[in-house]
Please model this.
Amino acid sequence: MKGRRWTTEEDQYLRERVLQSISSGGSQLDAFDEVGKKMGRTAGACGFRWNAVLRQQDPESYSDAKKQRVYTQLQRKRRPRFESLSRIGESLAEVERQWFYKKKHVEQLKKKIQYLDQEIQALESVLRSSPERKSEELTQKELEERYQDLLHLVGEIQQQPAFAKFFSEMKFEIPVIDGKSDRDTSS
Model:
């Protein structure tokens, strides 16, 4: 016994659902099941109608749907890569911002060190000058206090991680005053 004939509307609906399923990455079988339930036909009858009649009527649409499926699958695979590259780009931009900030900070600290070195040299010069000049500029005790303050500031700068390498490369001698190292804090 033969089943009922396929109408133009049924053919059109079957064609649209199968092509849509193929292009979106689904299977023809899923489309046959869906259309069969909606039209009261078996999935086998829908598959036979598609393979025997409809696919041969418009092979270009079938080929285009398969191409669309491949394109969609490639996009799904590539999307995580693009998102990953985007995150890497954002990370690089943040690293660059941090690097410029640190570089600017290092330059400021280098200038401060240079200033402190000049102050230390000036104080050492005053300490070595004649007694008359010492009393004119600063008393011995004031000079030593000021000198110790400057050395303390240099010590604090040396302890900052950003300058550890900088100071390790410097030949930095600690002068001795009155038999004590300037680093001695037991006075």
